[in-house]
């Protein structure tokens, strides 16, 4: 026999240290891990890749004059 608690998935681990996440700091386990993640974003360690044409700019040399 199963109870409703048996169907509840386990919380995802903290992406910084791997400990179980705490609802107050979700998805992290603590304020420290949340701050570590924020510092990584602010220092540029994390980056969202863009398309190649975004990096080159919109001017591709085919202007109509």
Shape: flat
The tally of helices reads: 2
Give the rounded overall mean pLDDT: 81
Structural class: mainly alpha
Report the sheet-strand fraction: under 5%
Task: Based on the coordinates given, report the CATH architecture of the domain at 12-43.
Answer: 2-Layer Sandwich
Radius of gyration: 21 Å
Looking at the structure, the CATH topology of the domain at 12-43 is Erythroid Transcription Factor GATA-1, Chain A
Q: What series of H and E elements makes up the topology?
A: HH
Task: Report the span from N to C terminus.
Answer: 77 Å
Major sheet size, sense and barrel closure = none
Protein name: DNA gyrase inhibitor YacG
Keywords: Metal-binding, Zinc
GO molecular function: DNA topoisomerase type II (double strand cut, ATP-hydrolyzing) inhibitor activity; zinc ion binding
Cofactor: Zn(2+)
């Amino acid at each position: 026999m199963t109870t409703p608690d048996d169907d509840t998935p386990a919380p995802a681990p903290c992406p910084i240290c791997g400990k179980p996440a705490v609802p107050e700091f979700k998805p992290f386990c603590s304020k420290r891990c949340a701050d570590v993640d924020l510092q990584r974003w602010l220092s540029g360690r994390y980056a969202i890749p863009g398309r190649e044409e975004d990096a080159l700019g919109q001017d591709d040399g085919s202007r109509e004059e």
